Each structure stands twice: as structure tokens, then as C-alpha cells.
Amino acid sequence: MKDRKWRRVLGTLLAAILICASLTGCSTGSKDGTGKDAGAGGEDGQGNGTESAGEQAMGRFLEEELDTGVVFGNIYDMKKLEDGSLRIIGTNGDNGNSGVWDSSDGGKTWQSVYDLPEEMQNPEKGWMDYAAISPGGQVVCAFNEDTSSGVHPVLYLMDKEGKADKMSFELPKEGESLNITTDLLFPSNEWIVLKDGAGTAYQINVSDSSVKYTYELDSDVSVFQLYAVGNTLIAQDETQVLCYDLQTGEQKDSEEALSKGGSENGLFHAVDTLDGGESIYCLSGGGLYHYKFGGSVMEQLIDGNMNSLGAPAFYPIALAMIDEQNLLVAANDTNASSATGICVLKYTYSADTPAKPDKELKMYSLYDNKEIRQSISRFQKEHTDVYVNYQAVLSEGNGINVSDALKTMATEIMAGNGPDVLLLDGMPVETYIEKGILKDLSALLKESGGSYFENILNVYQDAQGQICAAPARFMIPMIHADSAYYSPGEDFDAFTERKDTMVNMLPGTVVEKFWYTCGAAWQKEDKTLDESKITEFLTKLKNAYGEYDSSREGETVGMSMTMEGAGTEEVGDIYLSRGELELAFEKINTNFGLCRDMDYGMQQAVDKKLKDGKMDLMPGQADHVFVPTMVLGISSKSAQPEMAEEFVKYLFSQEAQKISQFGGFPVEKESFRSVIDGHEYEGLGGIVGVAGLGMEERLDYAMEPTPEEEIAKMTGLVESLKTPSLQDDVIKEAVVEQGEKVLKGELSPEEGAAAIMQKVNIYLAE
After folding, report:
1. CA nearest to 133, candidates 152, 113, 153
2. Which of 60, 471, 487, 525 has the smallest set of CB atoms within 10 Å of its CB?
3. How far is CA 336 from the centre of its chain?
4. What is d(CA 292, CA 229) in angstroms, rounded to the nearest whole number?
5. What backbone torsions phi and psi does residue 390 show, to the nearest 5 degrees?
6. How, if at all, do strands 723-724 and 625-634 pair?
7. Dihedral angle at the C-alpha atoms of 491, 493, 499, 500, nearest 10 degrees?
8. Where does 458-504 have alpha helices with state H?
9. 3-state DSSP call for residue 124?
């Protein structure tokens, strides 16, 4: 099982444009009838050569997941040694033992060389955080000894055969606090580089444990990641790369192209060299890059969009360049075929494979979607002739609003330059259906082979029985509270009569959360909105919210969740999980929001803190509401209709449905169960999850599988859902903007409703 440590860590679409006789799609009363060497980098900057007129450029790296014969529970480092063999230091996931494995055939087979010393295997004696391999095969481990006087960090050094000795190097204390190891490198047989919690790196002589040089790296605004190739130590943050000479300890001249490439393509995950450090191979989310020190170009050799390297759930651990056309990547990939998620991938250059796939499938969405990106990565593995060009129109910082984005998208669709597949989250889905923009998906879904929650899947079925769009996932607005503040089954009227249900909540967030359970009740048959319903909504919310605390002006709320070795994920304030700890420690009286996953252990831990904890569907003006997410549609003007159908069919397959990046529950039943049953915790009885708002506010709970009765209860709740939330982010933006003003007391409910109607009527009339 995976060894995880958690820390608390568009405006309008022009109606005139949409009404087009050439469209044949879902609508009321209609049916759809229908170069250079790869290792050195190519001249196009992608290692793929150039394309002459009329000729297709050839050459691309292909990916395969290796069957190492070992179920790795963790990999600390992987390196190609001076003798040409490969070495891994890691943990055997079957028995928990840490050790070293070698391969002499390019990674096809791996043999155990030795286990780490017994004292490093005993959890009562301490734990290991980092380990690194030298070019000659030595191994250094950063071990935290648990002694009677406290935790004492030490370094163990092992020769190539596994003989171990403690090094005499000791970390200085950070003030009165224990100092810790935060990075460990072994770039030369002569030196080890260790970075501590204060941001200082120490270059340590292997021979006598003395410190050769120190490097002061971290500042108040930057935390540098460390890498090394040859005699060059590399420190990188989000904006720059600094290089130091390990021979002299001096900082080298700036490498502007390397810094520029790093900031554009993302932080490095792993690096390696093939020429003693004269050049560097860098692995990031953008793919694999090559840079020669002193050069002016950082060349892309592998495009991460075409393989796992760019997938959201893929976290590289180490890179080993075998030669210019073969390389290995050790990674943590929750969607790998490995039972633990720890895998080793091989990339091999194929001169006979087109540099860019023969077919291009365009997919557009308003917002970036990690499940889609992960699914694209998996789909392209099986369809090497297809490139899925996925574009999120509202990318961060591009300054485009929802209204403008939808207008631009509509123009492209009507000109025949638009997407083949649409991810419709936040778009006016029903308008698109009425205007014939979307193809019927009914036959495609029948062929997908899954068993689905039909009440969710068929939500966008028209009068002729055509399914013109379908949600691959969904979220559930839910509430968790003590019975003193909420009774199960309580309606919106009863809930908002209380004056203390929304203590310490931000007004805009409250409005946005209740938009999901109320907005669906405002729409009339002609698609306009009922102003009286909106006025009622704002009046009742204002009553429950009470007086606004102006001292919280400008306050932002958010939470970061970090999985060790897997980066940081921001948890938005509209999600139920965001407020669970605050509920447990009485920072808030009720916690409500969108539920997108199930953590039974956490729920039980919170309930123990409450007198009579209850979790139920969130009240609203609409009844039994769900939020369709990852809503998929195929353009009736698709240039690649067959491939579009193949891709969408894949997105509803069990393989894609079981991908989880917290984007909602799968609509396929077996996949839904796999997300909520906690099977990943099976056999981990002693493992405890810890969460906290502060040192004195902690929740400890066992990570255990979800009881069968709770699975059945949750499944029944899903089957009871019947009302989809309103899908139109232009309307939502107007509601949240004006509703926040009402809760702050800047507008009366009547004035707020009138302002919403004015904005929405202009939008609907365009």
C-alpha cells in the first residue's frame, strides 16, 4: 500500500450565431444523423527534428512502465553508476524492508544487493527521510535516531557492497530547535551535499565527514530546491536558477536560459547528466529538457503532454539517463499499474514514430481539469497516433472573463475551428443542446460497458431521449453539524430561521455554496429567472447570516493539503472538507459545501468532537441537488468525430473513472465504490492520520476501510439525487457578486435581486 503522510497542510453565447442551419446535433425535434539526434535536441527545440514541406517530422520518445519484479513501497534515489549498471535505493512494499537493488540490463530486471542495517529498519529506533547514491555506488542515508534525549539526525554511509558506518557530521541546531535534513545529494564519490531546515547546504567530505563548503540558500521569500551534476550545484526556485562550483564553493555566472526555461516549464523534479556535468537533463511537468551550460537555448526532448510526465498525479522521484536515446524515471503515480503507485518508466527514442501524432483532437474547457489531464495521458499511451490538444480557456492570469471566453469559443465553433470535445462545466449546457451544438451520446454510452447512476448520467436527456451531454463525475452539496444547529431533512426555510448557523463564515462563500442548492429553483420554463425566488433566497440568507463583521474585510480563506513527495494542492473554501476541522474545534457551528470524496475516518473523528454529529444533504430551495461535473459533449461540427467518440467513451470507462484527482465522485458505480470504500487502507490498522489547525488542535484517526453499511448508505443517498444544479457561471458570478453585497448590508435583498436580474437579462438577451 502507498505510504502517505498528510499535513494540514463565459458572458454570453450569441443566439444569432448559435442558430445555424448547418448544425446537426441535439435539439428539440431533431436527431443526430451522424532530424537531429534526439539526445542533443532537435532544431525545433523538441528533439524531434524539422518538418520539410509535405513531409512529416519523425522521431519521438515512447513510454513504457517496467515490470521491475519488485513492488516498491518507496524509491529514494535511482542512478546510473560509473560501471554502466543501474542502482535503486528504496523500500520493498511487500515486507517493508529498505535496501538496494541493481540492474545490469537497462532496467529490465532488478536484483537485491543488500538490505539496510537492522538498526535502520526498526521503527522504534527511528526513521529515514532521505537517501542518495553516488556515481560509484555508495549510498548515504539521512536517519532520525529516536533517543532518550530526543530525535538525533545522523548520516549513514554504505559502500558499494553495503558495509555501513555512521558519519561523524552533525547538524548545528536551529536556535533552540532541532535542525532537520530537507535534501540530500551524492553528486561525487568525494562529496555529499546536505540541506538543512534553515536553508543552508553543507558540502561534506566523504573521507572524514568534514565540511568543505557551506551555501546559504533560502531567504524569507524563496525556498530553493537542490540538484547537482558533475561539479555544479544547482539551486532553483520559481523564478531563477543559481549555480555553484563544488570545486571552489563559489557562485558561477548566471545561466539565463536555464533560469528562463525553468520558470516557463516549471520547477525541476529530477536531473541527470551524460557528459560529466557539461550539460544537464531536466525533468519537469513540461517534459524532458536538455541544456548545455553557457548555452542560449533549453531544448525540449520529450513533450510531457504526450505521456505521463505532464499528468497531474505523476510525481517524478529520480531520472537516470542510460544514453541519449534511453532513460528511466522513477515516480510516484497514483494511477500506475503498480499496486503501490511507485513505478519505474522507460522512455525510448523511436526514429520511425512521427514526432507529432498523425491525428489531433481538440478539447476546450473553461477551467483546467486534472482528471481530464490524467485521462489524456493514459489515453495517449494506448493511442500513440493521437494528440489530444486540451486548452483551458480561463487559464490563470490571462485576464479573460467567463463572458468573453464563451463568445470567443462560440465564434471558433461556428467557423469550424472549435473543439471536437467540450468540457462543459460552467457553460450554459441546455442552451447548447437547444441550439444543436452537441451530438447525441446515447449509443456511445451504451458501448462504454459501465454500470452508471442513471439519475446522474441522463440529466441532460432531451425530449427525444437523446443524451446530448453527460457528467462523468458529480459532487453533492452536504452539511455536517451538531443536531443543535441542524436536523436531518430540515428544509431551507427552517435552516435559515436560526441566527447562529453561519458564524465566522465569509459572505461571498456562503452565497456561492447556496447557489448550488437554490439556483436550480429559480429558472422558469422560458429559461429566464424568477426574481421573487431570488429575493426570497437573499432575504433568508441575510436573516441567517446576521450582521457582517467588517474587521474580516479582505480576509481570504483557504487550506493547503500536502501529500509527502507529491506537491501541494489548494483546497477551495466551497468544499465540505475545507471546514471539517473548524467544525470539530468549534470555529464554526455548521459546515456545509460540496462533497467530492469520502473520508469516513475523518468524519467519525469530527463526530466524536460533536455532541450529536449529523451529516446530510445540504438544504436549499431545490430538492435533492447534485452538481454535475466533468460534463462532456462532442461538437456537432467536430473535425474528428470518430476519434472524439473514442475519447469520450474512454472517459466513461472504468479505467478513466477510477482516476481520482478530487474532481468529484465517478458516475460509474464500481468506480464510485472504489473511491469511497477506503480499500487503500486495508491492512494498515496501525497507521494514523493526523490533522490540525494548530499544535493544540489535532485530530488523530485510524485510516481504515469504510464499513459496508456506510458504503450502502452513501450509495443510496446518491441514487436519491434528482435535481442538477444550474450550469451557467455567468449567472453564478452575478449572484455571488450581488449576494455578497446583501450579506454585507450594502444592498437590501430586493436591491440585490434587481441587480442580479439586470445583469442576467442583458446576458440572456445577447
Report:
1. 113
2. 525
3. 15
4. 12
5. -100, 125
6. parallel
7. 20
8. 492-497
9. coil
